[in-house]
Amino acid sequence: MASSTLSRKIANVLSEEILKGELMPGDRLDEQSLADRFEVSRSPIRDALRELASTRLIEQQPRRGFAVATVDTTTLRNLYEALGELEGLCARYCALRADAVQREHIRMLHAQGQDAIRQHDMSAYAEANHALHRAIYDACHNDALRDITLDVRNRLSMFHARFLFSEDRVAQSRDEHEEVVDCILRNDGNGASEAMKKHVAKTALNIISHIMPDNRKPATPEA
Amino acid sequence: MASSTLSRKIANVLSEEILKGELMPGDRLDEQSLADRFEVSRSPIRDALRELASTRLIEQQPRRGFAVATVDTTTLRNLYEALGELEGLCARYCALRADAVQREHIRMLHAQGQDAIRQHDMSAYAEANHALHRAIYDACHNDALRDITLDVRNRLSMFHARFLFSEDRVAQSRDEHEEVVDCILRNDGNGASEAMKKHVAKTALNIISHIMPDNRKPATPEA
DNA sequence: AACACACTTAATGTCGACATTTATCACTGG
DNA sequence: CCAGTGATAAATGTCGACATTAAGTGTGTT
Hints:
The structure is a homodimer. By secondary structure, the first copy, chain A, is mainly alpha-helical. Chain A is built from 9 helices and 3 strands; from the N terminus they run H-E-H-H-E-E-H-H-H-H-H-H. Chain A has a 3-stranded antiparallel sheet. The N and C termini of chain A lie far apart (41 Å). Residues 214-223 of chain A have low confidence and may be disordered. The first copy, chain A, binds a DNA duplex through residues 4-7, 30-32, 40-44, 46-47, 62-65.
């Protein structure tokens, strides 16, 4: 929790703020303002920003500073397509390799999500949802694949954070989770993979349909 | 090529040196030494190192500086498994989505590799090989997936760089490429994916069998 | 009135020095 | 002779100031 170095602490704080949606895509991260806010010099701020850039949560343009990463609709679609494939892979390997403890953990997290829905506690559901996906990454027994998937999910989570899901969508999501979990528990790799891909695709459709209407300027003006 | 900022230039130089194998995994990157070598202060060096760390080519341990990333055998296997899946995905999407120009480009690059083999020019083959894989990533029409795959391949290329392949292995590799390219050219997504996964798996086996004998200390001593 | 040029300003890039921490090594005690 | 502790030294972490660049603004001319 308490990282040894200032820059690490600052990076963690900023990271959470971005993930929570307090800092919006496109927001500029001014070094001096941040230095004033954290009451440190610009050096640790620079280090923190560089570190955050490594997660692609923020972007740097030389001589133009850092800004919270923005993505255009195409990139968003691509990221969700990639996330679907990656989570599908995690689910497949999870179904084939997870040990008994991990399977039980996954089963339990899914149950927690169901409880949260019954109590109409959307915040608890979001947490259980996140933990479930995370548990599946962990149980795929491939740390590299887990890290890659987690990175993509984090890049996207700043969009998730800004939208409350309708009760309908949450119920649908629960059913999709159930299919994934069922496949995992019965060692059905292909089934788990397909179910997970379908689940992510539907989530993507839901998010993108919320974002589409807005006229935010395209993010990466690269060719 | 000529990046505007010092740190960017330095990062590029160091990156190439790592990718070429001139800097070996585990080599420490001392800030002061690098500052002396590039005749700049430590600031741009620090920026460059932070930027390199974002590609995972080098690793940072707080208060202990940076070092060229080292991976233990397990991580290496995981990375190759992930690379196989990712390249399989790229090949699948490539087969389904590549346009005529891209298909022709891929066909040509494969032919170049074959020529290189006939002339026993291993350097040219390595280059054509790299270009072919790269062309397949590009033609998958998903920049996010392409970038992720490229990152993993770069992380592994520092190991590739240190081994010359036997003529036997190169010939085998050529045949595997041919199968991939054939599938792509006939829009066979599943075939391309499977062929590519097989190709990467065999390459991995080849590399790992070269590395296994050595007694290098495990890289990431994390729990 | 519109465009172009120059100036001002505010940001990042770079520098050198100081602070802090960690690792090494010598010394002392058992 | 080994182990533990302390000091020393070398590395990274942090700081404040200066240099440089890019953007914005204002003025002058066509």
